[in-house]
From TrEMBL:
Tagged with keyword ATP-binding: no
Protein known as: Dienelactone hydrolase
Keywords: Hydrolase
PANTHER family: ALPHA_BETA-HYDROLASES SUPERFAMILY PROTEIN, CARBOXYMETHYLENEBUTENOLIDASE-RELATED
Domain Dienelactone hydrolase, chain residue ranges per copy: 30-235
SUPFAM superfamilies linked to this entry: alpha/beta-Hydrolases
MF-aspect GO terms: hydrolase activity
Lineage, opening ranks: Bacteria, Pseudomonadati, Pseudomonadota, Gammaproteobacteria, Oceanospirillales
Length: 236
């Protein structure tokens, strides 16, 4: 992709995030930011936002690419994801900008990031690199997130939850172990849950490509929501 990062993700990009404010809850000081799959903001992320709001938390599902700019073809999705993840600095600047736009009064909010597939990695990026992030939960996210340049630049206070398919071909055992060693070296609070008989995209009802390691798993999805609900309660 020959275009610059800004021309793809910033210039002339109009975004409409999907936001639910739960004002009458004792959890209203917590705001959950949802990062989407490489397909961009869809009904799936909106349904997750509805579920998180039902837990009592305010939530925003991020419009990552902008209105009418979601990629459709697989090659286009991969190209946009590659451009997004090519360099740490522009990626984190964009994520920080979108987080601020998603959370009114961000200085007074406890921010927890949640994401799926590409969004799982983006949640981990935000949790590790943004000082204001209290936590990050990754669902079938890649473990190739950018490491902090030094320990003092890492947000070591963030809590991490990784929900992973044990047979996910996109998360090799070596990558999983390296991520765990990294968080351990920083003294971070992390949980890494492997689900048996589960591959990539286990949360997405539309995922049905087992020959390529992508398949919805309703039981794992149900269990994952319970893990997420418990994780979010830790910030109340």
């Amino acid at each position: 992709m020959s275009q610059t990062f800004d021309s793809i993700f910033k210039q002339d990009v109009k975004r409409i995030h999907y936001q639910i404010d739960v004002l009458d809850s004792n959890k209203s000081h917590i705001h959950v930011v949802i990062w989407p799959t490489f397909s961009g903001l869809s009904d799936f992320e909106k349904s997750v936002a509805d579920q998180i709001a039902a837990f009592g938390f305010s939530v925003t599902a991020i419009d990552l690419y902008g209105q009418d700019k979601n990629p459709v073809a697989l090659d286009e999705k991969r190209a946009k994801m590659g451009a997004l993840l090519a360099e740490a600095e522009p990626l984190h600047a964009l994520q920080h900008e979108l987080t601020q736009s998603a959370c009114d009064g961000i200085q007074t909010k406890t921010i927890v990031h949640v994401g799926f597939c590409l969004g799982g990695r983006l949640a981990l990026e935000a949790g590790l690199h943004f000082e204001g992030s209290a936590g990050a939960a990754s669902f079938h996210g890649l473990m190739s997130f950018f490491r902090a340049q030094s320990e003092d630049k890492a947000n070591t206070k963030a809590k991490i939850l990784v929900l992973n398919g044990h047979q996910d071909p996109l998360v090799p055992e070596g990558d999983a172990q390296e991520a765990k060693r990294y968080w351990t070296s920083l003294g971070m609070d992390f949980q890494f849950v492997d689900f048996s008989n589960t591959v990539h995209s286990f949360m997405l009802p539309s995922a049905n490509n087992p020959d390529h390691g992508s398949q919805y798993n309703p039981l794992t999805a149900q269990r994952s929501y319970l893990y997420l609900a418990n994780f979010l309660e830790e910030f109340v």
